[in-house]
Amino acid sequence: MNRALIVTRREVTEVMRDVNLVAPMLMLPTLMAVVSGLAVFSTATTQTGTVGVIMTTIATEQVGTRVANQFLGLSAEAQEAAVQKVIKALLIPMFWIVTVGLTATVSADSFVGEKERGTLEPLLATPIRVGELLFGKMLTAVVLAVLGTWFGVAIFATLVWQSNTPYLPKFLLADPDWAIAILVIVPLCATMSGAISAIISTRASTYRSAYQLNGLVVLPIVAMLIPQTMLLYFMTPRALPILAIGFIMLDVLLVQAAMHVFDRERLIGGGR
Amino acid sequence: MIEAVGLRKTFGSHEALAGVSFSVEEGEIYGLLGPNGAGKTTTTRILACLLKPNSGSARVAGYDVLEQPELVRQSIGILTEVPGLYERLRAHEYLNFYAEMYGLDRPRRRARAELLMRLLGVWEVRNERILGFSKGMKQKLAIARALMHEPRVLLFDEPTAALDPEAAKTVRDHLVDLIRDERRTVLLCSHNLAEVEQICSRISIIYGGRALTEASPAALKAAVARSVEVRLAAVQPGFVDAVRGVAGAASVEAHDGMIRFRTEDAWRVNPAVVRQLVGAGAEVIDVQLEPVTLEDAYLHYVRQAVHEREPSVASGSSVPNGMVR
Description:
The complex is a heterodimer. Chain A is mainly α. Chain A contains eleven helices and no strands. Helices cover 83% and strands 0% of the residues of chain A. Chain A starts with a helix and ends with a helix. The mean pLDDT of chain A is 82. Chains A and B meet through helix 1, helix 6 and helix 11 of A and helix 1, helix 2, helix 3 and helix 5 of B.
């Protein structure tokens, strides 16, 4: 078997036996799915409930009176279409944040945690190529983060199915936008975060610092992406395919950068 | 089997290695001695292709560390300062992982793992997670890992440091058996001078990134100045001057019916001193040569190096922190 896959299999086994890693991998997507699900439920009934009132108030404040009045002047069909767009534009990026958070958790442990525990040196002394090691470790982080995110999406999709909301399809992934966002962009987001982790690992010496650095680099990127995505989404129906292509280009650049800086001497830390 | 020529390595402004050279023959256990920070680990890492030297060259198992690093890594087994185990794995899973990394097929993986775990006394805990292992058991498992793929060259950094005396003896005996039966080559970095003396055929003492000397343990000890006491029937005033006349005899003094002196070449100087004393009319009763341990020899070389580097530090008997255990 390819050495990269051997590394991935070993790392997945280890992660799944560590409650400190498994717990956030389950809790973060569950929390996001449940909160998003509650918001969806609030749109499904005429009685908005407390959550619906709070969300509507916040949304109205964000949108502003002029836009709200414009919205109220639309036909019923146009209003429904607009609400569908808003819900998608708000909820989809939330799952990307989950992906990024999970990738950072797993990859900080995989890249720098291994350095910290002294397991990296014997591993680097095996015939494994640096590219194989990078691929194996990134694959671990991407696979686990994607599976964790999909776990959250599965909960959310179940809630959507149960809610009978008119603003989301009964089967969530039947909607092309949701399908692209979850099946294509989530893995691309994970790859981006994993590549950034790999680059950081050549600098950071502790799990904590790697995790924090990853957050510092990745979260602003995602934070910028969310409003851009929303804007793009309102401008063109091809927003998500365009975004996917953008992510692919970004990932290629980041993986190349990671390959460039990821070498044995840097990983060891050049120490004595 | 290992050939290092003029290895030089710097980390920023710090020069970790300043031209270290040595060679290790096939089937030899070669000791690398030196205080903490001397450059032992850097040397090992260069030989394992984990670090690249700034200058100099090295060949391991016939392969160049810069040109053929993958072949070098396939040929070596390494044991680092810390065991470096995946503690959430079970012992057999851990060995299986490394065996796969070296491309061993399943039957060979199983056979090697069983052989080594039985040999090192961890067979009974093969299905337990490493997390619960004692320090000694972890070290044994790390040793088993290094031996899994039957490497031609072993780079061992303190292999018995965490082991109890019985386990340490098992490992030592196993190393010696490997050499005898399978012609393996071992580079052993250690602070355990007794162990090094026991199993190494040659030793290099390094300090400040430089090799101070290289010789067999016996030759290293023989080269260190030692005290000689010559008991005489009676000490006459001319006897001290007679001994002072022998080239190689230093610090000559008379004390309690004895002539005492120091020499770095007892095999040549002692007979000459006895001849000189007998010629001067002395009746020699006994000649005592102070025994020298490898620790004495080691300290002698390191203090000499410290003195050359920082004359004010080494004037006393102490050596810099961390020099010896």
